[in-house]
Specification:
Helix content: 25-40%
CATH class of the largest domain: Alpha Beta
CATH superfamily of the largest domain: Type I PLP-dependent aspartate aminotransferase-like (Major domain)
Bound molecules: D-malate
Oligomer: single chain
Strand content: 5-15%
Structural class: alpha/beta
Distance between the termini: 61 Å
Shape: globular
Length: 396
Protein backbone atom coordinates (compact mmCIF):
# COMPACT_ATOMS: atom_id res chain seq x y z
CA UNK A 1 0.00 0.00 0.00
CA UNK A 2 1.33 3.45 -0.97
CA UNK A 3 2.50 5.55 1.95
CA UNK A 4 2.61 9.35 1.59
CA UNK A 5 5.53 11.21 3.09
CA UNK A 6 4.22 11.67 6.62
CA UNK A 7 6.94 14.23 7.41
CA UNK A 8 4.61 16.78 5.77
CA UNK A 9 2.42 16.45 8.86
CA UNK A 10 5.21 18.15 10.80
CA UNK A 11 5.12 21.30 8.67
CA UNK A 12 3.19 24.43 9.60
CA UNK A 13 -0.13 24.63 7.73
CA UNK A 14 1.20 27.00 5.12
CA UNK A 15 4.48 28.52 4.05
CA UNK A 16 5.20 31.96 5.55
CA UNK A 17 4.96 34.04 2.38
CA UNK A 18 1.92 32.12 1.19
CA UNK A 19 0.16 32.87 4.49
CA UNK A 20 1.03 36.55 4.17
CA UNK A 21 -0.26 36.80 0.62
CA UNK A 22 -3.51 35.11 1.68
CA UNK A 23 -3.93 37.61 4.53
CA UNK A 24 -3.28 40.52 2.15
CA UNK A 25 -5.74 39.14 -0.42
CA UNK A 26 -8.40 38.78 2.30
CA UNK A 27 -7.78 42.35 3.39
CA UNK A 28 -8.09 43.65 -0.18
CA UNK A 29 -11.25 41.61 -0.67
CA UNK A 30 -12.90 43.34 2.28
CA UNK A 31 -11.41 46.81 1.60
CA UNK A 32 -12.16 47.25 -2.09
CA UNK A 33 -10.20 50.12 -3.65
CA UNK A 34 -7.49 50.21 -0.94
CA UNK A 35 -3.89 50.15 -2.07
CA UNK A 36 -1.33 48.24 -0.03
CA UNK A 37 2.36 49.14 0.30
CA UNK A 38 4.35 45.95 -0.08
CA UNK A 39 7.48 45.66 2.03
CA UNK A 40 6.87 41.97 2.69
CA UNK A 41 8.45 39.28 0.49
CA UNK A 42 11.80 40.28 -0.96
CA UNK A 43 10.57 40.58 -4.52
CA UNK A 44 12.30 43.11 -6.74
CA UNK A 45 10.42 45.98 -8.40
CA UNK A 46 12.97 47.20 -10.96
CA UNK A 47 13.16 45.60 -14.41
CA UNK A 48 16.15 43.64 -15.68
CA UNK A 49 19.03 45.85 -16.75
CA UNK A 50 19.65 46.70 -20.44
CA UNK A 51 22.68 44.41 -20.84
CA UNK A 52 20.66 41.41 -19.66
CA UNK A 53 17.70 42.29 -21.88
CA UNK A 54 20.00 42.69 -24.88
CA UNK A 55 21.63 39.31 -24.22
CA UNK A 56 18.23 37.64 -23.78
CA UNK A 57 16.99 39.07 -27.11
CA UNK A 58 20.14 37.94 -28.90
CA UNK A 59 19.81 34.48 -27.41
CA UNK A 60 16.20 34.24 -28.59
CA UNK A 61 17.38 35.13 -32.10
CA UNK A 62 20.10 32.46 -31.85
CA UNK A 63 17.37 29.91 -31.28
CA UNK A 64 15.75 30.93 -34.59
CA UNK A 65 18.76 29.91 -36.70
CA UNK A 66 20.02 26.43 -37.47
CA UNK A 67 23.65 27.56 -37.15
CA UNK A 68 23.25 29.12 -33.68
CA UNK A 69 20.41 27.00 -32.29
CA UNK A 70 20.95 25.17 -28.97
CA UNK A 71 19.12 22.05 -27.87
CA UNK A 72 19.88 20.49 -24.47
CA UNK A 73 22.36 22.51 -22.48
CA UNK A 74 25.08 20.87 -20.35
CA UNK A 75 23.29 19.87 -17.13
CA UNK A 76 25.79 21.57 -14.81
CA UNK A 77 25.90 24.79 -16.80
CA UNK A 78 27.13 26.25 -20.09
CA UNK A 79 30.86 26.90 -20.26
CA UNK A 80 30.28 30.60 -20.97
CA UNK A 81 28.14 30.93 -17.81
CA UNK A 82 30.52 29.02 -15.53
CA UNK A 83 33.44 31.04 -16.90
CA UNK A 84 31.58 34.28 -16.16
CA UNK A 85 30.91 33.21 -12.55
CA UNK A 86 34.50 32.00 -12.02
CA UNK A 87 35.71 35.37 -13.38
CA UNK A 88 33.48 37.19 -10.87
CA UNK A 89 35.04 35.24 -7.96
CA UNK A 90 38.50 35.83 -9.37
CA UNK A 91 38.00 39.58 -8.95
CA UNK A 92 37.92 38.94 -5.20
CA UNK A 93 40.97 36.69 -5.37
CA UNK A 94 39.00 33.42 -5.18
CA UNK A 95 40.30 30.86 -7.66
CA UNK A 96 37.65 28.44 -8.87
CA UNK A 97 37.90 25.94 -11.65
CA UNK A 98 34.92 26.15 -13.98
CA UNK A 99 33.75 22.69 -13.02
CA UNK A 100 33.36 23.82 -9.42
CA UNK A 101 30.54 26.12 -10.62
CA UNK A 102 27.04 24.74 -11.26
CA UNK A 103 24.18 26.68 -12.80
CA UNK A 104 20.84 26.56 -10.99
CA UNK A 105 17.32 27.90 -11.27
CA UNK A 106 17.87 30.04 -8.20
CA UNK A 107 18.87 29.70 -4.56
CA UNK A 108 15.54 28.59 -3.12
CA UNK A 109 15.29 25.60 -5.50
CA UNK A 110 18.91 24.71 -4.90
CA UNK A 111 18.78 24.98 -1.09
CA UNK A 112 16.21 22.20 -1.09
CA UNK A 113 17.67 20.11 -3.93
CA UNK A 114 21.20 20.08 -2.47
CA UNK A 115 19.92 18.05 0.49
CA UNK A 116 20.03 15.01 -1.83
CA UNK A 117 23.77 14.91 -1.10
CA UNK A 118 23.30 14.13 2.59
CA UNK A 119 21.92 11.24 4.57
CA UNK A 120 18.54 11.55 6.22
CA UNK A 121 20.17 10.80 9.55
CA UNK A 122 22.49 13.82 9.33
CA UNK A 123 21.51 16.53 11.80
CA UNK A 124 21.14 20.11 10.64
CA UNK A 125 21.86 23.27 12.58
CA UNK A 126 19.74 26.28 11.67
CA UNK A 127 20.74 29.68 13.03
CA UNK A 128 17.49 31.47 13.76
CA UNK A 129 15.80 33.75 12.84
CA UNK A 130 16.22 32.05 9.45
CA UNK A 131 14.79 31.91 5.96
CA UNK A 132 11.96 29.43 6.59
CA UNK A 133 12.73 27.18 3.63
CA UNK A 134 15.86 25.85 5.44
CA UNK A 135 13.67 24.37 8.14
CA UNK A 136 10.78 23.28 5.92
CA UNK A 137 12.98 21.54 3.33
CA UNK A 138 14.61 19.50 6.11
CA UNK A 139 11.32 18.67 7.80
CA UNK A 140 10.11 17.27 4.47
CA UNK A 141 13.06 14.86 4.49
CA UNK A 142 12.52 13.98 8.14
CA UNK A 143 15.88 15.29 9.26
CA UNK A 144 16.64 16.28 12.87
CA UNK A 145 16.82 20.06 13.16
CA UNK A 146 18.81 21.83 15.85
CA UNK A 147 17.56 25.39 16.28
CA UNK A 148 20.27 27.83 17.33
CA UNK A 149 18.64 31.05 18.51
CA UNK A 150 20.31 34.38 18.03
CA UNK A 151 19.32 37.78 19.34
CA UNK A 152 20.21 41.40 19.91
CA UNK A 153 22.82 40.35 22.51
CA UNK A 154 25.03 38.72 19.85
CA UNK A 155 24.01 40.99 16.97
CA UNK A 156 22.09 38.02 15.47
CA UNK A 157 25.48 36.50 14.65
CA UNK A 158 26.04 33.55 17.00
CA UNK A 159 29.43 31.89 17.11
CA UNK A 160 30.13 28.18 17.36
CA UNK A 161 31.05 26.54 20.60
CA UNK A 162 32.76 23.24 21.19
CA UNK A 163 29.65 21.62 22.63
CA UNK A 164 27.65 22.35 19.49
CA UNK A 165 27.39 19.23 17.33
CA UNK A 166 25.72 18.99 13.91
CA UNK A 167 26.47 17.53 10.50
CA UNK A 168 25.10 20.34 8.38
CA UNK A 169 24.74 24.03 9.08
CA UNK A 170 23.10 26.86 7.17
CA UNK A 171 24.81 30.22 7.27
CA UNK A 172 23.17 33.13 5.46
CA UNK A 173 25.36 36.24 5.36
CA UNK A 174 24.26 38.97 4.72
CA UNK A 175 21.42 37.51 6.66
CA UNK A 176 17.81 37.13 5.71
CA UNK A 177 15.92 38.35 7.74
CA UNK A 178 18.16 40.32 10.14
CA UNK A 179 20.57 41.94 7.67
CA UNK A 180 23.48 40.99 9.97
CA UNK A 181 26.78 40.10 8.26
CA UNK A 182 29.57 37.89 9.60
CA UNK A 183 33.03 39.40 9.44
CA UNK A 184 35.97 37.28 8.31
CA UNK A 185 37.13 36.47 11.83
CA UNK A 186 33.73 35.12 12.92
CA UNK A 187 33.19 33.22 9.70
CA UNK A 188 36.62 31.64 10.15
CA UNK A 189 35.41 30.33 13.53
CA UNK A 190 32.51 28.56 11.80
CA UNK A 191 34.83 27.20 9.11
CA UNK A 192 37.21 25.83 11.76
CA UNK A 193 34.29 24.37 13.70
CA UNK A 194 32.96 22.66 10.55
CA UNK A 195 36.34 21.22 9.58
CA UNK A 196 36.92 19.98 13.12
CA UNK A 197 33.48 18.35 13.34
CA UNK A 198 33.49 17.11 9.72
CA UNK A 199 30.33 19.15 9.19
CA UNK A 200 29.35 20.86 5.94
CA UNK A 201 28.34 24.53 5.77
CA UNK A 202 25.60 25.44 3.30
CA UNK A 203 26.46 29.09 2.76
CA UNK A 204 23.62 31.17 1.36
CA UNK A 205 25.21 34.17 -0.37
CA UNK A 206 22.07 35.45 -2.09
CA UNK A 207 22.54 38.96 -0.69
CA UNK A 208 26.31 39.38 -1.13
CA UNK A 209 25.92 42.15 -3.73
CA UNK A 210 24.42 44.43 -1.04
CA UNK A 211 27.56 44.53 1.09
CA UNK A 212 28.96 48.07 1.40
CA UNK A 213 31.71 47.61 4.00
CA UNK A 214 34.86 46.65 2.12
CA UNK A 215 36.18 44.43 4.90
CA UNK A 216 33.16 42.11 5.01
CA UNK A 217 33.34 38.82 3.12
CA UNK A 218 31.04 38.27 0.11
CA UNK A 219 31.85 34.59 -0.17
CA UNK A 220 32.77 31.89 2.31
CA UNK A 221 35.64 31.01 0.01
CA UNK A 222 37.37 34.20 1.13
CA UNK A 223 37.99 32.26 4.35
CA UNK A 224 40.94 29.90 4.63
CA UNK A 225 39.82 26.31 5.09
CA UNK A 226 36.38 26.76 3.50
CA UNK A 227 37.19 24.60 0.49
CA UNK A 228 37.11 21.49 2.67
CA UNK A 229 33.83 22.28 4.44
CA UNK A 230 31.52 24.54 2.43
CA UNK A 231 29.08 24.70 -0.42
CA UNK A 232 28.05 28.20 -1.54
CA UNK A 233 24.63 28.85 -3.02
CA UNK A 234 24.02 32.11 -4.80
CA UNK A 235 21.29 33.64 -6.87
CA UNK A 236 20.79 36.45 -9.34
CA UNK A 237 17.30 37.11 -7.96
CA UNK A 238 18.22 40.00 -5.72
CA UNK A 239 21.59 40.85 -7.29
CA UNK A 240 20.17 41.41 -10.75
CA UNK A 241 16.37 41.29 -10.49
CA UNK A 242 15.94 37.64 -11.54
CA UNK A 243 13.16 36.71 -9.08
CA UNK A 244 10.78 36.02 -11.96
CA UNK A 245 13.45 35.09 -14.51
CA UNK A 246 15.22 32.45 -12.35
CA UNK A 247 18.93 31.75 -12.48
CA UNK A 248 21.61 31.20 -9.87
CA UNK A 249 24.77 29.24 -9.23
CA UNK A 250 26.31 26.91 -6.71
CA UNK A 251 29.98 26.41 -5.92
CA UNK A 252 31.20 23.01 -4.72
CA UNK A 253 34.98 22.79 -4.33
CA UNK A 254 36.72 19.67 -5.55
CA UNK A 255 38.29 19.15 -2.11
CA UNK A 256 34.95 18.73 -0.35
CA UNK A 257 34.75 15.07 0.66
CA UNK A 258 33.34 13.01 3.52
CA UNK A 259 33.73 9.28 4.09
CA UNK A 260 35.65 9.02 0.82
CA UNK A 261 32.79 10.51 -1.20
CA UNK A 262 33.33 13.64 -3.27
CA UNK A 263 30.43 16.12 -3.21
CA UNK A 264 31.36 17.80 -6.48
CA UNK A 265 31.26 14.44 -8.30
CA UNK A 266 28.03 13.54 -6.52
CA UNK A 267 26.40 16.80 -7.59
CA UNK A 268 27.44 16.19 -11.22
CA UNK A 269 25.81 12.77 -10.92
CA UNK A 270 22.71 14.32 -9.39
CA UNK A 271 22.31 17.12 -11.93
CA UNK A 272 22.96 14.93 -14.94
CA UNK A 273 20.18 12.65 -13.70
CA UNK A 274 17.65 15.11 -12.36
CA UNK A 275 17.88 18.13 -14.68
CA UNK A 276 18.45 19.03 -18.27
CA UNK A 277 20.15 22.23 -17.23
CA UNK A 278 18.94 25.81 -17.36
CA UNK A 279 17.86 27.13 -20.75
CA UNK A 280 20.42 28.60 -23.15
CA UNK A 281 18.45 31.85 -23.27
CA UNK A 282 18.47 32.34 -19.50
CA UNK A 283 22.12 31.47 -19.11
CA UNK A 284 22.99 34.02 -21.82
CA UNK A 285 20.99 36.66 -19.98
CA UNK A 286 22.55 35.67 -16.66
CA UNK A 287 26.11 35.72 -18.04
CA UNK A 288 25.54 39.35 -19.11
CA UNK A 289 25.22 40.29 -15.41
CA UNK A 290 28.95 39.62 -15.01
CA UNK A 291 30.11 41.84 -17.89
CA UNK A 292 31.52 45.27 -17.10
CA UNK A 293 28.41 47.06 -18.32
CA UNK A 294 26.13 44.50 -16.64
CA UNK A 295 27.87 45.09 -13.31
CA UNK A 296 27.56 48.87 -13.67
CA UNK A 297 23.86 48.60 -14.43
CA UNK A 298 22.94 46.18 -11.65
CA UNK A 299 24.85 48.32 -9.16
CA UNK A 300 22.68 51.30 -10.15
CA UNK A 301 19.57 49.25 -9.38
CA UNK A 302 21.01 48.13 -6.06
CA UNK A 303 21.57 51.80 -5.18
CA UNK A 304 17.85 52.44 -5.68
CA UNK A 305 17.04 49.73 -3.11
CA UNK A 306 19.65 51.18 -0.79
CA UNK A 307 17.93 54.55 -1.07
CA UNK A 308 14.69 52.79 -0.05
CA UNK A 309 16.53 51.39 2.96
CA UNK A 310 17.68 54.89 3.94
CA UNK A 311 14.16 56.24 3.67
CA UNK A 312 12.78 53.50 5.96
CA UNK A 313 15.66 53.81 8.42
CA UNK A 314 15.06 57.58 8.68
CA UNK A 315 11.41 56.91 9.54
CA UNK A 316 12.40 54.38 12.22
CA UNK A 317 15.03 56.76 13.62
CA UNK A 318 12.42 59.50 13.84
CA UNK A 319 10.14 57.18 15.79
CA UNK A 320 12.90 55.82 18.00
CA UNK A 321 12.18 52.24 16.92
CA UNK A 322 15.10 49.84 17.34
CA UNK A 323 16.32 48.15 14.13
CA UNK A 324 19.34 46.56 12.50
CA UNK A 325 20.24 45.68 8.89
CA UNK A 326 19.52 47.93 5.94
CA UNK A 327 23.16 48.85 5.34
CA UNK A 328 24.86 45.74 4.00
CA UNK A 329 21.62 43.91 3.27
CA UNK A 330 18.26 44.68 1.67
CA UNK A 331 16.27 43.89 4.82
CA UNK A 332 15.55 45.96 7.91
CA UNK A 333 14.85 44.02 11.09
CA UNK A 334 13.00 45.98 13.74
CA UNK A 335 11.55 45.58 17.20
CA UNK A 336 7.76 45.77 17.11
CA UNK A 337 6.65 48.92 18.93
CA UNK A 338 4.48 48.86 22.07
CA UNK A 339 5.46 45.26 22.83
CA UNK A 340 3.23 44.00 20.05
CA UNK A 341 3.77 40.43 18.88
CA UNK A 342 4.98 40.01 15.30
CA UNK A 343 1.59 39.02 13.92
CA UNK A 344 -0.22 41.70 15.96
CA UNK A 345 2.06 44.29 14.42
CA UNK A 346 1.47 42.78 10.96
CA UNK A 347 -2.32 43.13 11.35
CA UNK A 348 -2.02 46.58 12.91
CA UNK A 349 0.15 47.95 10.09
CA UNK A 350 -2.08 46.46 7.43
CA UNK A 351 -5.31 47.76 8.99
CA UNK A 352 -4.10 51.22 10.00
CA UNK A 353 -1.56 52.10 7.31
CA UNK A 354 -1.98 49.47 4.57
CA UNK A 355 1.68 48.50 4.93
CA UNK A 356 2.67 44.86 4.41
CA UNK A 357 5.78 43.55 6.15
CA UNK A 358 6.92 40.15 7.37
CA UNK A 359 6.35 39.03 10.98
CA UNK A 360 9.62 38.02 12.63
CA UNK A 361 8.00 34.97 14.20
CA UNK A 362 7.76 33.45 10.71
CA UNK A 363 11.57 33.12 10.76
CA UNK A 364 11.62 31.09 13.97
CA UNK A 365 10.36 31.48 17.52
CA UNK A 366 13.21 33.82 18.53
CA UNK A 367 11.93 36.22 15.86
CA UNK A 368 8.79 36.81 17.95
CA UNK A 369 8.39 40.51 18.74
CA UNK A 370 10.37 41.51 15.64
CA UNK A 371 9.36 42.47 12.12
CA UNK A 372 11.07 42.65 8.71
CA UNK A 373 10.79 45.31 6.02
CA UNK A 374 12.06 44.51 2.55
CA UNK A 375 13.65 47.39 0.64
CA UNK A 376 12.85 45.92 -2.80
CA UNK A 377 9.56 47.79 -3.24
CA UNK A 378 9.12 50.70 -5.63
CA UNK A 379 10.54 54.03 -4.52
CA UNK A 380 7.07 55.61 -4.48
CA UNK A 381 5.56 52.83 -2.37
CA UNK A 382 8.48 52.82 0.05
CA UNK A 383 8.33 56.59 0.52
CA UNK A 384 4.59 56.46 1.09
CA UNK A 385 4.96 53.55 3.53
CA UNK A 386 7.66 55.45 5.48
CA UNK A 387 5.40 58.51 5.64
CA UNK A 388 2.43 56.47 6.84
CA UNK A 389 4.56 54.76 9.46
CA UNK A 390 5.70 58.08 10.89
CA UNK A 391 2.13 59.46 10.86
CA UNK A 392 0.73 56.35 12.53
CA UNK A 393 3.19 56.27 15.42
CA UNK A 394 3.49 60.04 15.89
CA UNK A 395 -0.26 60.11 16.58
CA UNK A 396 0.08 57.64 19.45
C1 LIG B 1 12.27 36.64 1.27
O1 LIG B 1 11.44 37.54 1.24
O2 LIG B 1 12.69 36.16 2.32
C2 LIG B 1 12.79 36.10 -0.03
O3 LIG B 1 12.42 36.92 -1.06
C3 LIG B 1 12.20 34.80 -0.28
C4 LIG B 1 12.94 34.08 -1.36
O4 LIG B 1 14.00 34.50 -1.81
O5 LIG B 1 12.44 33.03 -1.75
Amino acid sequence: MLKPNTNYKNLKDSYLFFRISQKVNNYLESHKGDKVYRLGIGDVSLPLCDEVIKALHEAVDDQANKATFHGYMPECGADFFKKAVAGYYDQRGIKLSEDEVFVSSGASDELGDILDLFDKSDSVLVIEPAYPAYVDANIMVGRQIIHLSSGKENGFLPLPDDNQKADLIYICSPNNPTGAVYDKKSLKMWVDWANKNKAVILFDAAYEAFIEDEALPHSIFEIEGARTCAIEICSLSKTAGFTGTRCGYTVIPKELEREGMNFNNMWVRNRTTKTNGVSYILQKGAAAVFTEKGQEQIKKNIQVYKQNAKCLMQALDKLGIWYCGGKNAPYIWLKCPDNMSSWEFFDYLLEKAQIVGTPGEGFGSCGEGYFRFSTFGSVEDTEEAAKRLVELFSKK
